[in-house]
């Protein structure tokens, strides 16, 4: 597994995860955006591991 792919998945996932609450009118610096960042990052890493094998 390439570390660059894992980092790319984490960055893309966390970026998208932080912007999802913004689409519903919540601030980018809210607690739900922080949770979205965490969940999106974990999901991005999972997607990279899932499709790399």
Estimated helix fraction: over 70%
Content of β-strand: under 5%
Please, what is the oligomeric state? single chain
Class per helix and strand makeup? mainly alpha
What form results from the Cα inertia axes? elongated
Separation, N- and C-terminal Cα atoms: 9 Å
SSE pattern: HH
Average pLDDT for all residues: 93
- The total count of strands amounts to 0
> How large is the radius of gyration?
12 Å
Q: Spans with pLDDT under 50 lasting ≥5 residues?
A: none
Give me the number of helical elements: 2
Number of domains: 1
The biggest sheet amounts to: none
Tell me what the structure shows.
The chain is mostly helical and 53 residues long. The protein has one domain. Helix 1 packs antiparallel against helix 2. The chain is elongated, with a radius of gyration of 12 Å.
Q: What does this entry show, briefly?
A:
With 53 residues, the chain is an all-alpha fold. It contains 2 helices and no strands.
SSE arrangement:
Elements: H1 3-23, H2 31-52
Helix pairs in contact: 1-2
Characteristic terms for this protein:
elongated, about 55 residues
């Amino acid at each position: 597994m390439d570390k660059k792919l894992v980092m790319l998945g984490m960055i893309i996932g966390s970026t998208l995860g932080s912007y999802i609450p913004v689409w519903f009118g919540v601030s980018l610096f809210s607690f739900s955006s922080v949770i979205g960042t965490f969940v999106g990052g974990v999901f991005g890493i999972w997607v990279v591991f899932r499709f790399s094998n």
